[in-house]
């Protein structure tokens, strides 16, 4: 019998405690959720974690709690960005990274799904508009940039996470609204992915589209340093974000397929790509610690990368459930949920290194956000367990 996941409610309440402290701080405090340095995007990511917990654990009054967290988040958004997402300006403010709005938009759609409050759908549309009007500066003369989404203004890169989030948000908004602009956005963005996926694998024995290569230990970077940075470490959250994007497009594949050039069978292609990434993730020696089956950090992570394991677990579990292939991966989900939640750090919060591999978070100027990121990632692991319990 698989041991029970310990004290899941305690993990949630500790996360809520940090949320309440961090959102009450003034914007100029680097630990504030309204601070644009780290806090703003972590607020969007944490909102997503809350919504997954409410939607899967169904604690008492969970719909009211979901609405309360979302209203708190909207106030954070207003303070951070200086605009009301329910009444946005015609042109997006150029103060945050474009991928920040992707994290927020996807989370707000979960708020909408739990509460059916149209105001949250409107906020998600605002996030999409900001990304579309601000980040979608396509350079059609460069095939590697065509249809891509930039991560910052005025200079930035077309990194994997920003493009994944825009595809995810576009596809979900089309599914919910049937508005053509969202379908166009999703299809154009997928063409960017297809271009990169089919350029050829660095590892000759691995199928195209797989983002990590356990067979020969050589990663393929969809663009630049998206998958592996100059220190050689993997960004686990990016792997999950791609799975989430593919999953969202798969849900509207009937409408998308006629507009997409490339794969002869879009449904089969999306399933093969998603399953390929899932398979690679659980067996890659640079992501899974020795023979434990537990995700770890081969080097250090900053406050952004510190939530990567949680983001991967979030999207991986949802993908497995949607594809009906849970059984093969269930031990991986359970082992990571147990490792993340059963052995808290000395301060009572979830450990950063689930594998207890002696790794630490870089970012000594943000003690509160350090707590938030590791608590959030551990809660994501527990939320994943809720989808695929033993």
Summarize the structure.
By secondary structure, the protein is an all-alpha fold.
Shape field = globular
What structural category arises from helix and sheet content? mainly alpha
Biggest pleated sheet? none
Which assembly state applies to the chains in this document?
Answer: single chain
- Proportion of residues in β-strands: under 5%
Number of strands: 0
Low-confidence stretches: 200-209, 213-232
- Give the radius of gyration: 19 Å
Q: How much helical structure, as a percent, in the residues?
A: 55-70%
Total of helices: 13
The average pLDDT score comes to: 87
- Pattern of helices and strands: HHHHHHHHHHHHH
Cα(first) to Cα(last) distance is 8 Å
What does this structure look like?
- With 390 residues, the chain is mainly alpha-helical.
- Among the domains are: 31-135; 142-287, no CATH class.
- Helices cover 56% and strands 0% of the residues.
- The chain has 13 helices and no strands.
- It has helices spanning 8-24, 39-57, 62-81, 98-115, 118-135, 160-177, 180-197, 236-251, 253-256, 266-283, 308-323, 326-341, 367-387.
- Helix 6 (160-177) packs parallel to helix 8 (236-251).
- The longest helix has 21 residues, at 367-387.
- The chain is globular and about 55 Å long.
- The model is unreliable at 200-209 and 213-232 (pLDDT under 50).
